[in-house]
Design brief:
By secondary structure, the chain is α/β, with parallel strands linked by helices. It contains 17 helices and 12 strands.
Length: 465
C-alpha cells in the first residue's frame, strides 16, 4: 500500500513526543455502560460529579516495543485515576492508531472506542458517518484551562459549522530542514537559514558545488508525496489548493506556477537537485543523514527519525520557517468522542485528554520524566500553544532539553500561520505528483499545461465525490 504522509507523520510525531503509537489492550473498545444520550446540561463544562462512576475506553496506547512510552502511559493513567478515582480508563490495542480501511469500518460499525484517535483531516469523514459528538458545551477554561492558548488554527481543524468535535494532542508545522555541517562547509551561516526561494537557490548552488553526489535541495515526487510537498510550498507562497468550499481546484494561479518554477530552476538551471528523482519518504532523510543533502521541506520529527533510525546526530541538523512565510502546512492528531456516549463519558474523556495532553508539566509535557526515560526533549512540537502557555512550554523544554534547541531557533522565531491539508487530500496529491515529477525529469516541461491538466483532473475528482 502507498505510504500515506499523514500516517508517517503521526507515527513519527508520537515517537518524538514520547507517545508512540498503540498496542497491548487494557480493555475492550467500548464500555459496557448504557450511554446517556441526553443533551448537555447548562454547566456541561463543570467537572464530572465525583459521585458518578464512569468507565471510558481510549485507543492509541503505546506498544510493547516502546517500553518507555508505554511506561509513561501507565503512569499517567494511574496518576489521573488517583485524581479522579471515579473514572476508570481502559486502553485498546491497535497498530497503527489509525489504518484508513479499518477506521472506515469502525465508523460504519460503531466499534470505535469512546474517545478515539483521528487525523486532523478525518473530521469530514467522521461527521459524514454521524460518528462524533459535538463537545462544544463541555469545553471551556474550566475543563481545559489552557484553552485560550491553543492556536485557533489547530482548533479550527476540529470544528465544523462552529461546533467543536475533538481536542488535539500532537501536531506539526512544516518548515525548512537543513544540514548544518554542509552549511558551514559552504560558508553559509547555519544559524540563519534562507527564508525565501531565491535564498534557497543561492544556498543550494553553493552546496551542490561540492559534487560527489551532494545535492543542495531535494523534494519528493512520488506516492502522493510530491503533491503533499507541492501543497506545503504553495501554502508558503500564500496559495490554496482548493476553493473555500473544497469543491474546485484553486492552485492554477501565479503562486501555483511559482512552485513548479522554483523546482524547475533548482533542478535544471542551478543543477542543485541531482539526476535521481521520483523520491519518496524517507529518501530525503536518508540523503541528509549521510550528508548528501543540504535542504528540504519537512517537519521537526523528521530530525528524530534521522537520529533514532538513521543514526544521525541532532547537532548536525537545523530548521527554519516555511519558505515564503505566508502559511505553513499544518497536520496532526486528535481525539474525537463517539456519538451517543453521553455527557458523563464526554466529561471523563475531556478530563483525561486535558491531563495527558494539554496540561503543562503533566503527561506529554513532563519533560524531566521524558529526559530521564531516555527520550528526546527539545523538538519544537507539538506546536499548538500560543501566548503564556507557549512561553512556559519553551522554558520547561529548554530546561530538560536533550537536543540542541538553538538549532530550531530560526523556526521558532517566525510564527508562520498554520493551514491544514485540503479535504480529500490524498486524491489531490496523487494528481499533483504527476506535475511535480514532470518538472523534475523534463527540462522542457510545459508548466502551464501541467497545471491546467492537474486542475482539470482535480475538478473531475472533486465533482464525483
Amino acid at each position: 500500500m502507498t505510504r500515506n504522509p499523514r500516517v508517517r507523520r503521526s507515527l513519527a510525531a508520537l515517537a518524538a513526543a514520547g507517545l508512540a503509537l498503540t498496542a497491548a489492550a487494557c480493555g475492550s473498545g467500548s464500555t459496557a455502560e448504557t450511554p446517556d444520550a441526553s443533551a448537555p446540561a447548562a454547566d456541561a463544562a463543570a467537572p464530572l460529579d465525583p459521585a458518578t462512576r464512569v468507565t471510558i475506553s481510549i485507543d492509541c496506547q503505546p506498544p510493547v516495543n516502546k517500553p518507555a512510552e508505554r511506561k509513561q502511559w501507565a503512569e499517567d493513567i494511574a496518576a489521573f485515576q488517583q485524581l479522579h478515582p471515579n473514572i476508570t480508563v481502559t486502553s485498546k490495542d491497535g497498530f497503527p492508531c489509525e489504518e484508513p480501511a479499518a477506521f472506515t469500518a469502525q465508523l460504519k460499525g460503531r466499534t470505535q472506542t469512546d474517545v478515539f484517535y483521528s487525523y486532523f483531516t478525518d473530521l469530514e469523514q467522521v461527521l459524514d458517518a454521524d460518528a462524533a459528538e459535538d463537545i462544544s458545551a463541555y469545553v471551556d477554561e474550566t475543563s481545559v484551562p489552557a484553552l485560550k492558548d491553543i492556536d485557533p488554527s489547530v482548533l479550527a481543524t476540529l470544528k465544523s459549522d462552529g461546533k467543536l468535535y475533538g481536542l488535539p494532542f500532537s501536531n506539526y508545522r512544516m518548515g525548512l530542514i537543513y544540514n548544518r555541517k554542509l552549511f558551514q562547509r559552504a560558508g553559509l551561516d547555519p544559524d540563519s537559514p534562507p527564508t525565501t526561494w531565491d535564498g534557497i537557490r543561492e544556498a543550494a548552488r553553493r552546496i551542490a558545488a561540492f559534487g560527489d553526489g551532494v545535492n543542495g535541495y531535494g523534494d519528493y515526487s512520488a506516492t502522493n508525496q510530491g503533491g503533499w510537498h507541492y501543497t506545503a510550498e504553495l501554502y508558503g507562497l500564500g496559495g490554496s489548493m482548493t476553493t473555500p468550499d473544497g469543491k474546485k481546484a484553486a492552485f492554477r494561479t501565479p503562486e501555483g506556477r511559482q512552485v513548479l518554477q522554483n523546482l524547475h530552476d533548482l533542478r535544471w538551471t542551478d543543477n542543485a537537485m541531482g539526476a535521481t528523482q521520483g523520491l519518496k519518504w524517507p529518501d530525503l532523510m536518508t540523503q541528509m543523514s549521510t550528508d548528501k543533502l543540504g535542504m528540504y521541506v519537512g517537519a521537526p520529527d523528521d530530525i528524530t527519525y534521522m537520529v533514532q533510525t538513521l543514526k544521525g546526530n541532532y547537532a548536525d541538523y537545523g530548521m527554519g520557517p516555511m519558505p515564503g512565510g505566508k502559511a505553513a502546512l499544518l497536520g496532526g492528531n486528535d481525539y474525537l468522542f463517539k456519538k451517543g456516549i453521553g455527557p458523563d463519558r464526554i466529561k471523563a474523556g475531556i478530563a483525561w485528554i486535558n491531563f495527558k495532553f494539554l496540561t503543562l508539566g503533566k503527561g506529554q509535557f513532563d519533560y524531566a520524566r521524558t529526559r530521564n526515560d531516555g527520550l528526546p526533549v527539545g523538538l519544537p512540537q507539538p506546536a499548538f500553544f500560543t501566548g503564556a502557555s507557549l512561553a512556559a512550554d519553551n522554558t520547561a523544554k529548554a530546561a530538560s532539553a536533550t537536543v540542541p534547541v538553538a538549532n530550531y531557533a530560526p523556526y521558532l522565531a517566525v510564527q508562520v500561520p498554520g493551514k491544514t491539508e485540503p479535504a480529500n487530500a490524498q486524491l489531490i496529491y496523487k494528481i499533483l505528483d504527476t506535475a511535480v515529477s514532470a518538472v523534475l525529469t523534463d527540462r522542457d516541461a510545459d508548466l502551464d499545461k501541467l497545471l491546467a491538466d492537474a486542475e482539470s483532473q482535480v475538478n473531475q475528482v472533486l465533482a464525483n465525490l
